Amino acid sequence: MSSKYPVLPPQKIISILSQFGFEKVSQKGSHAKYKNRITNSIYIIPMHKEVAKGTLKSILEQADVDIDDFLKFI
Question: Which domains does the chain possess?
Answer without folding.
Answer: 10-71 (3.30.920.30)
